[in-house]
Predict the 3D structure of the following.
Amino acid sequence: MWTLPILIDGLLEYVLYLVLQLGADFENEALALMQSLLFDAKRRTTVCQPPHILPRDLLAKNLYKLDIIGTIRPTLFFFREDMEKVHYLHQLGVAVRIKYNLKDLFVEAKKGLINISIEDMEHFHLSKEDLSNPSSRLAGIF
C-alpha cells in the first residue's frame, strides 16, 4: 500500500526529472517553497499552546515565497510565458491566497495556523476564539 509521503516523494522526483529535461533551474523557486513549508511548520502548535498571530509583513513574505516565487514563476516558465508577467500576476496571487485563507479559516486555526494578521485582527475586532470556533459570530460570514 502506498502512503502519502511516498506518493508525494514520487511526484516531487518526477517533477524534478521534468525540470531537468527542460534544462530549467528552479533552485530559487524550490528554496522558496521549502522556506514557506518550514514557516508553516514552525507556526503549528500543540493543543496546549495558543496559535500565533503574526504581523502582516511576515505573512506577506510567506505568501510571496509560496504563491509568487514558488507557484506563479514556474507556471509562467512551463507555459513559455514572459517571466516579466509575474509582476502583473502578483495581485491576482494575493487575491487567490486571501480566498483560500478565508475558505480554510476554521480548519487552519484548529491546526494552529492563523493566516490573518495582527493588524487585521485588531481592525476587524477579532479574537483567537472567533477563529477557532466554527459556531462563533464569524460562522455566518464564511
